[in-house]
Automatic annotation (TrEMBL):
<feature type="repeat" description="NHL">
    <location>
        <begin position="189"/>
        <end position="225"/>
    </location>
</feature>
<dbReference type="GO" id="GO:0008270">
    <property type="term" value="F:zinc ion binding"/>
</dbReference>
<dbReference type="Pfam" id="PF01436">
    <property type="entry name" value="NHL"/>
</dbReference>
<protein>
    <recommendedName>
        <fullName>NHL repeat containing protein</fullName>
    </recommendedName>
</protein>
<dbReference type="InterPro" id="IPR050952">
    <property type="entry name" value="TRIM-NHL_E3_ligases"/>
</dbReference>
<dbReference type="InterPro" id="IPR001258">
    <property type="entry name" value="NHL_repeat"/>
</dbReference>
<dbReference type="InterPro" id="IPR011042">
    <property type="entry name" value="6-blade_b-propeller_TolB-like"/>
</dbReference>
<keyword id="KW-0677">Repeat</keyword>
Length: 225
């Protein structure tokens, strides 16, 4: 199990059945801008062979790549962003969520929490492209986002985005920038059909969806339709 340890600026690896973590990226307790440091790391994802891990470095506005057998203090590789906070296609703006499934697509998908957009980016390219949301414009229509965080894609390249401050989950079909709401309904609440500041998203092998409903202190399961 790999854990992004936000306040310690590191990624911890726990071998199966062990309670002792090993720092595999970052320097414990040291944040910064060097290639072996993080400043507010959020999500991580892996390539299909789990040779590399890709990590959102939130306050450095970049995506970093490390070998999964890395050790603390090793330099990572910058693969997206790193040009300061911004809303141009060569920048990221507080990247939060990330998902990479190279068996399905060459693109890495990234949510810009403070840019209110979804981008796709080929790792190592000098720029990416916006595929949902309008840079630096928040809103609640089907074409806008408000602080997107968690993200997943399926084998059909449908993209599922946790639209945190809209209290909903949006699905974007391939080549469409118009979202379809599949959970939540803009208005925050604690009923079975509402969410309140959701952040994380996961699917099981049957494609049932699980949402970390942050302000309701719960995990909500939505069965596959």
């Amino acid at each position: 199990m790999y854990v992004t340890d936000y306040y310690n600026s590191r990624v911890q690896k726990f071998v199966n059945q062990s309670t002792i973590g090993q720092t595999v990226a970052g320097i414990s307790g040291s944040n910064g801008v060097s290639l072996n440091q993080f400043n507010g790391l959020r999500y991580l994802t892996f390539d299909s062979t789990e040779t590399f891990m890709y990590i959102t470095d939130f306050n450095n506005h970049r995506i970093m790549r490390y070998l999964t057998n890395s050790t603390t203090g090793n330099n990572g590789t910058l693969v997206a962003g790193g040009n300061g906070a911004g809303n141009n296609n060569n920048q990221l703006n507080s990247p939060w969520g990330i998902y990479y499934l190279p068996s399905v697509s060459n693109y890495m998908y990234i949510t810009n929490a403070n840019g209110h957009t979804l981008m796709r980016w080929i790792p190592g390219a000098s720029s990416g492209e916006f595929i949902a949301g309008i840079p630096n414009l928040l809103g609640s229509s089907s074409s806008l986002l408000n602080t997107p965080t968690g993200i997943k894609i399926d084998i059909y390249q449908n993209v599922f985005v946790v639209d945190t401050n809209n209290n909903r989950v949006q699905m974007f079909c391939p080549n469409s920038s118009i979202g379809i709401t599949i959970a939540g309904n803009i208005i925050s609440g604690s009923t079975a059909t509402q969410l309140n500041g959701p952040r994380g998203i996961a699917f099981d092998s049957s494609m049932n969806m699980y949402i970390a409903d942050y302000n309701n202190y719960r995990i909500q399961k939505f069965n596959k339709l």
